[in-house]
From TrEMBL:
This is glutathione transferase. Residues 4-84 form the GST N-terminal domain. It comes from Buddleja alternifolia. The lineage of its organism: Eukaryota, Viridiplantae, Streptophyta, Embryophyta, Tracheophyta. GO terms for cellular component: cytoplasm. Keywords: Detoxification, Transferase.
């Protein structure tokens, strides 16, 4: 499919946009990436395409917009069914993968970002404990979902790999900026190995944000968020 029929509205630091990019890469779908600077302004196309949430990512397939990262991943998997499957074929495995993906967005990633955004050492300590507890749960989930293979999806990257793997850049940033250990070889060996395999995958390695660049963006973002809270 020609890239002018597929547009992805997004921003390079966004882990949610990264999900869409990885899914499209897995299916070898050509697309035009349209950078949005949502911290400054939102384009008319974005506001028109996602009038409800007004957020990225938005995948525009022809003239039809698809919003929300996990919905986009599922859409890509269903439309380009001839490519490698992203969601598990077994209904129970699909349900489990969706459960953990919701957990990541609702519970785990907010605790991760709170490590940077929280004011006061006690709040940061609580957020760190919650993030580490979540990783312990995900270490167990990996053992069950991977069935002895390299990825949550088995021998290939799947839905839950994309859901969690999109946050790896931010995990590295938080480890550097907050001087903490999150995905640790001694504490979560399966996730540690998985993170290396995931980051080196052909569908991932060229779209993962550079850590140094993401650190600089994170400093700007933290200052902006905390600065706006004092007004």
């Amino acid at each position: 499919m020609a890239s002018n029929e597929m547009k992805l509205l997004g921003a390079w630091p966004s882990p949610f946009v990264l999900r869409a990019r990885i899914a499209l890469n897995i299916k070898s779908v050509e697309y035009e990436f349209m950078e949005e600077n949502v911290l400054v302004t939102k384009s008319d196309l974005l506001l028109k395409s996602n009038p409800v949430y007004k957020k990225i990512p938005v995948l525009i397939h022809g003239e039809r917009p698809i919003c929300e990262s996990l919905i986009i991943v599922q859409y890509v998997d269903e439309v380009w069914a001839s490519g490698p499957a992203i969601l598990p074929s077994d209904p129970y495995d699909r349900a489990v993968a969706r459960f953990w993906a919701v957990y990541l967005d609702d519970k785990w990633f907010p605790s991760l970002t709170a490590i940077l955004m929280s004011d006061g050492e006690e709040a940061k300590k609580t957020a760190l404990e919650q993030a580490i507890q979540g990783l312990d749960l995900l270490e167990e989930a990996f053992t069950k979902c991977s069935k002895g293979q390299n990825f949550f999806g088995g021998d290939k990257i799947g839905y839950l790999d994309i859901a969690l793997g999109s946050f790896l850049g931010w995990v590295r940033v938080i480890q550097i900026m907050a001087n903490v250990s999150l995905i640790d070889e001694s504490k979560t060996p399966n996730l540690f190995k998985w993170a290396q395999d995931f980051s080196g995958h052909d569908a991932v390695k060229d779209v993962l944000p550079e850590t140094d660049k993401l650190v600089e963006f994170s400093k700007f973002l933290v200052a902006k968020v905390k600065g706006s809270g004092t007004k």
